[in-house]
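pls ignore typos typing on phone
iron/sulfur cluster + seq
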Amino acid sequence: MYRVNEIFYTLQGEGAHSGIPAVFVRFSGCNLRCPWCDTDFADGTMMSAEAIVEEVLALYDLPNERRKMVVLTGGEPSLQVDKPLVDALHEAGFYICIETNGTRPLPEGIDWITCSPKYIYQSEGRSNSGAVLQQSGLIAKRSMLAIRHANEVKVVFTGTYDPEIWREQLEAEHWLLQPLRYTGEWLLETGCDAFEDDRNDNLDDTVRYILSHPFWRLSVQLHKIAGLR
Ligand code: SF4
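k done
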């Protein structure tokens, strides 16, 4: 059984598959506490693999479509996704993507792995602390990744450390930087004073970084621009 927060059909809004329709299965629970996390993954309903596939198929009722994509996300889906679920989704004809923070091993057979490494903010139990964010360049050098390869790596660009550190730890075909959007409310709620002087998103800084480090490319949240979930 799997604890599932929600299952819905929309466009993939981030990364190399941006704009492609997919059914998203959001699993409950995460092992990290990122200060900018905008995902409500706490609640969940216990479901079997068969029940998940049934609901995914009900949302993606296009039998002649060759490219049926499902995205396993969270929370942190690797806490729950296993080979039986992967096999059940493959048997139903789906191309399986997963969005993981990379801190846990993955079952075999997943077709597309998006790793968004963020473990640094969990360090030493001081998540949500501006001090940790400012020190994150040092903390991030501790290797806590459980995977070594992904199809794409998507890094939230905070401007507080050099994202090149991830290239020492992961192999991937696509390297994406995503600007962090933060608001005054968010800062007040989390007490994260690392960004207090700048309450706009750091899109300009992200673009400047990519122009001088052209290995990376820009990833924005297309679903938010399009007003989708
Ligand atoms: S890893 Fe993802 S889901 Fe987990 S806390 Fe961080 S942003 Fe949220």
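The pocket of iron/sulfur cluster is lined by residues 30, 32-34, 37, 39, 41, 74-76, 101, 118 (CB under 6 Å). Confidence is low (pLDDT under 50) at residues 121-143, 183-200. more later
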